[in-house]
């Protein structure tokens, strides 16, 4: 046991199981199925986000076993462990939603903790919902061991081409009187037909696409149906790929470079992806040690068009994009247009350009991806706004269908629940700019998504007549004239805390500005009278998060260096 030369791929596991001094470690592992032969193999940790609390993750237990089989078949030893997940779709509009973004940090912490303790040589992480995907990526980045990320896959459409956002918007239509309870229940019963992540280009599909473009998933992983042989095969291939990465000592830091993050941003923009990608990509870059800022989204956005007609602002679902080839043909088109860095290394061990060399174009008759010379929008839909309401920046998703400029009177609320009640009862009317504050990373805490109020606005037919701004954030399913991530947040004394009912607010998505019509002197007068609210939680994970979290403009991470 002590004389056997160490396999260079077993840099971490050898410390745990080699030699007579590790007899106790081996005894423990024998009880869970290890054999003498297994102790000599590289160990591949399989981080599973399985849970039956959400359809996004309800099938991932099988996928984790497939990944473990792939590692075993390639000469390694797969070891499955779980981390948590929560469901935004279930928690939206409740106090529980404050745990959503917090869960990203908990997931990263737990993957780092388990892998760091147990001595895994490489990892596969399988995510299937909004926060567990960037959480997995941040855990892999912290460990910096040969790793592959696998997306759990997209859900299929519900009856009548419905999805989770259809249900949220049905509730708004009911409050307006356009649907009765039976019609709402019919949508509720049929919109979510089985396993998989929410079906539009919402946050889950956005982040899956970004991670594939980043080079950390195998080609095609982001565009597969959750219930498919292709997804099962993807998982098995990922387990085997880690052994090849170990052989070549290719680590996340070799793949997650500045140029790779630029590729990820480019693909997110082309697909019309979620505003959450801004928050998560900055957080992932921070974790791996790459400088990325809000300004990068603006700079890249000037040259990258939106070409995908995907929900929530468009018509099609991810499963329909899967049917015509996924994102690989789009990436090849972007590469040929000079918009992607083809020399970036990926988890295949090849460059992005090499991976795309033999990819076929989309069918001629498809309607989902527009030609580059006739895009859905000539520049990015993700607008980084600055002004006296957001000196450090804010993030808007403006497709142009809402218009590009909105001016209206502030209607101010101190919480999502308060705003939701006033939208439903008709207090919010055309011409209003709904301001929801004290929902930022520290003030919420947890930076809740505002899918419920934005869906209510759309359901009440006010999507083009009401704007909404917040220091919280939005679901990828939100659409309309919405601005989030306003920084500094209100809890820290940001200008959003100083707005009063009736103040004139102007949002300009061409000039990329967001301003309140108040003089510097008036803002100073209001600031002098403002007092920071007491924290909403004194103990527990939300309190700990609020004390450690950084600004949304730096990714809302909890491990930012001093």
UniProtKB/TrEMBL annotation:
<comment type="subunit">
    <text>Homodimer.</text>
</comment>
<keyword id="KW-0028">Amino-acid biosynthesis</keyword>
<feature type="binding site">
    <location>
        <position position="56"/>
    </location>
    <ligand>
        <name>[2Fe-2S] cluster</name>
    </ligand>
</feature>
<dbReference type="InterPro" id="IPR042096">
    <property type="entry name" value="Dihydro-acid_dehy_C"/>
</dbReference>
<dbReference type="GO" id="GO:0051537">
    <property type="term" value="F:2 iron, 2 sulfur cluster binding"/>
</dbReference>
<feature type="binding site">
    <location>
        <position position="130"/>
    </location>
    <ligand>
        <name>Mg(2+)</name>
    </ligand>
</feature>
<feature type="modified residue" description="N6-carboxylysine">
    <location>
        <position position="131"/>
    </location>
</feature>
<dbReference type="InterPro" id="IPR056740">
    <property type="entry name" value="ILV_EDD_C"/>
</dbReference>
<keyword id="KW-0100">Branched-chain amino acid biosynthesis</keyword>
<feature type="binding site">
    <location>
        <position position="449"/>
    </location>
    <ligand>
        <name>Mg(2+)</name>
    </ligand>
</feature>
<dbReference type="InterPro" id="IPR000581">
    <property type="entry name" value="ILV_EDD_N"/>
</dbReference>
<feature type="binding site" description="via carbamate group">
    <location>
        <position position="131"/>
    </location>
    <ligand>
        <name>Mg(2+)</name>
    </ligand>
</feature>
<keyword id="KW-0001">2Fe-2S</keyword>
<dbReference type="Pfam" id="PF00920">
    <property type="entry name" value="ILVD_EDD_N"/>
</dbReference>
<dbReference type="GO" id="GO:0009099">
    <property type="term" value="P:L-valine biosynthetic process"/>
</dbReference>
<dbReference type="GO" id="GO:0009097">
    <property type="term" value="P:isoleucine biosynthetic process"/>
</dbReference>
<dbReference type="InterPro" id="IPR037237">
    <property type="entry name" value="IlvD/EDD_N"/>
</dbReference>
<comment type="similarity">
    <text>Belongs to the IlvD/Edd family.</text>
</comment>
<dbReference type="InterPro" id="IPR020558">
    <property type="entry name" value="DiOHA_6PGluconate_deHydtase_CS"/>
</dbReference>
<keyword id="KW-0408">Iron</keyword>
<feature type="domain" description="Dihydroxy-acid/6-phosphogluconate dehydratase C-terminal">
    <location>
        <begin position="367"/>
        <end position="556"/>
    </location>
</feature>
<keyword id="KW-0411">Iron-sulfur</keyword>
<protein>
    <recommendedName>
        <fullName>Dihydroxy-acid dehydratase</fullName>
        <ecNumber>4.2.1.9</ecNumber>
    </recommendedName>
</protein>
<keyword id="KW-0460">Magnesium</keyword>
<comment type="pathway">
    <text>Amino-acid biosynthesis; L-valine biosynthesis; L-valine from pyruvate: step 3/4.</text>
</comment>
<keyword id="KW-0479">Metal-binding</keyword>
<comment type="function">
    <text>Functions in the biosynthesis of branched-chain amino acids. Catalyzes the dehydration of (2R,3R)-2,3-dihydroxy-3-methylpentanoate (2,3-dihydroxy-3-methylvalerate) into 2-oxo-3-methylpentanoate (2-oxo-3-methylvalerate) and of (2R)-2,3-dihydroxy-3-methylbutanoate (2,3-dihydroxyisovalerate) into 2-oxo-3-methylbutanoate (2-oxoisovalerate), the penultimate precursor to L-isoleucine and L-valine, respectively.</text>
</comment>
<feature type="domain" description="Dihydroxy-acid/6-phosphogluconate dehydratase N-terminal">
    <location>
        <begin position="41"/>
        <end position="355"/>
    </location>
</feature>
<keyword id="KW-0456">Lyase</keyword>
<feature type="binding site">
    <location>
        <position position="88"/>
    </location>
    <ligand>
        <name>Mg(2+)</name>
    </ligand>
</feature>
<dbReference type="GO" id="GO:0004160">
    <property type="term" value="F:dihydroxy-acid dehydratase activity"/>
</dbReference>
<dbReference type="GO" id="GO:0000287">
    <property type="term" value="F:magnesium ion binding"/>
</dbReference>
<feature type="active site" description="Proton acceptor">
    <location>
        <position position="475"/>
    </location>
</feature>
<dbReference type="InterPro" id="IPR050165">
    <property type="entry name" value="DHAD_IlvD/Edd"/>
</dbReference>
<dbReference type="InterPro" id="IPR004404">
    <property type="entry name" value="DihydroxyA_deHydtase"/>
</dbReference>
<dbReference type="Pfam" id="PF24877">
    <property type="entry name" value="ILV_EDD_C"/>
</dbReference>
<comment type="pathway">
    <text>Amino-acid biosynthesis; L-isoleucine biosynthesis; L-isoleucine from 2-oxobutanoate: step 3/4.</text>
</comment>
